[in-house]
Amino acid sequence: MNRLLELEKELARFSGLNTKPNTPAAPVAPSVSAAQSYGGYHYAFEAPKKGKVCVLTIDGGGIRGLIPALILEKLEVMIQQKRSSMLIQDAFDYFGGTSTGGIIAASLLVPPVINAGKDDFENPNQSMNKRYRYKASDIASIYRGNEAQLIFGREPSRFGSKIQKIQDGIYVKYDRAGLDQVLRDRIGGIQFRALLKPCFLTAMNITTGAGRVFDNVTDGRWLAVDVVRATSAAQTYFDPVQIAEDGRRGGNWFADGGMYQNNPSKLVLDRVVYNFTNTESQFGGIASGKSPKITSYPNGTQVSPEDIVFVSLGTGLGNTGVNGEEMLNSGQAFWIRTVLDQAMSSNSIANDVDLRRILGNAQYFRLNPELPGEVEMDDISPANIARMTQAVNNLFTRESERINQLVKLLIDNN
Q1: How far apart (Å, rounded) are the C-alpha atoms in residues 94 and 391?
Q2: From 25, 174, 394, 414, which residue has the greatest number of CB atoms within 10 Å?
Q3: What is the pTM of this model?
Q4: Residue 96, Cβ neighbours under 10 Å: how many?
Q5: What is the mean pLDDT of residues 320-331?
Q6: Per residue in 272-314, pLDDT tens?
């Protein structure tokens, strides 16, 4: 239970700053280096006040990220009906995400000030009126309107017949410049360690061929926007990204975390129960069958599954099956996307089953609405937005008793 307090001490040591929880350090003079470090301010983690450790993870799924974004928005409304000052960020101690889920998780933890030397730095008092830059209701706008058009509206600019080469599976489907612009606007120039609570984001290191879990303590010097670019570099949709610590040029190449673990819940649980690690190896701890009572935290504090409330948000249950006869005469692009979709879907289901077994229904909540058929990860049409919105509304109606139980648990624990 004292792990977050330990993280605060470790973060202060690592950064060379001494800060108190929720207390910003003195502003850094506007400069390029300041914009790439803390956005003008440095924030320490806040230890949980009481009760259980609460964990939130969010699956990948492209435009279907609207689903968990709407779920969080509705949960925050329900929470604030009982406790008006409580934000969805206050309800959780650890955050994790893959791909679009990584965008959401990181966005929730962005501090009020993100760009030293720019408008929000010049008037910091206005920005400091709120503890987080974004409310839950601010996240869903990523998937509607201009930002969605930027992400999924630009074909790659290359020589030759673009349409034909896309159909042949030679080119990725979209120019990632639009996605990068949205992420820069949302997250700014802060380092990963400036996010306000512990955050785990998955990616696939295609240079080494190993999965990677970035965390904002041991990987704190990476730029937050680079880590989010890595987790959201959706295969076949966007080019991979080459990133290095501190925003330096070069480094390894990374692709979407969905190639590793589209549902990051088991990875995050493993790290909460054991320790932070940035090793690029297969599961340790829980996933390998070791005793969940064991912990390797420096202070010896134990966090067992009995101490945890775990909320896992999916991006919708759709039909990822295909007619085998259709595959007989299909090209590479169809095969690649179909296999990837099915691999990500099966991973999400398998991790859901494992988390239910490990934690039980009293501590584990999986919110993943049923979709009317398969929803493409890049379908930004108004009709599809409406379908996903209705799916979330249906979930809250069908699972109202269970969701009310979760909301009460989150409030009572805060």
Answers
A1: 27
A2: 174
A3: 0.76
A4: 30
A5: 58
A6: 876 544 333 333 334 444 333 333 333 445 567 778 899 999 9
Residue 303 φ/ψ region, left for φ over 0, alpha for ψ in the -120 to 50 degree band, beta for the rest: beta
Residue keyed to tokens 């990837």: 340
**Residue where the block lists tokens 């493409």:** 376
Distance CA 271, CA 178 (A): 33
Residue type, 56: L
Q: Please write the tens of the pLDDT for every residue from 38-91.
A: 333 333 334 444 578 899 999 999 999 999 999 999 999 999 999 999 999 999
